[in-house]
Amino acid sequence: MAKVTNNEYDKMVKKASPNSPLWKNMLLAFLIGGAICCVAQGFRNIFSDIVGLGDVETGTATSVVMVFLGVLFTALGLYEKLAKYGGAGTLVPITGFANAVSSPAIEFRAEGIVTGVCSKMFVIAGPVIVASALCSAVYGVVLAIMQ
Asked: Which end of the chain is more exposed for a tag (fewer CB within 10 A), N or C?
């Protein structure tokens, strides 16, 4: 087997890899992510202006609705189709998190409640939760020391 230098390998990879339509992908991510945020803002306005909830209740109700919609779209197979076009735009925090938790749970439901749904639910989101909790704890310690 012939030795290949790093530069030669890079050239081979670039030649074999398809070009990514970067600007198109960024535009679609922006539009899809923005649309998801607009839907959330619409629900927030409804809960605040029409229903008359306070700030905390409005935020809670909006979050619950967006999580529900994220799980519903995942269960119906629509979130995956949306992600094919919107890419990173579908990672908008609350709906993306709902998708990350519900997708493995739905996929492994045939294995049963405990061994399927419950054990697989946090396969993707689990490390994110652990990292977030760890970063929050470190931030809290640093803040406490600085004060």
From this structure: N
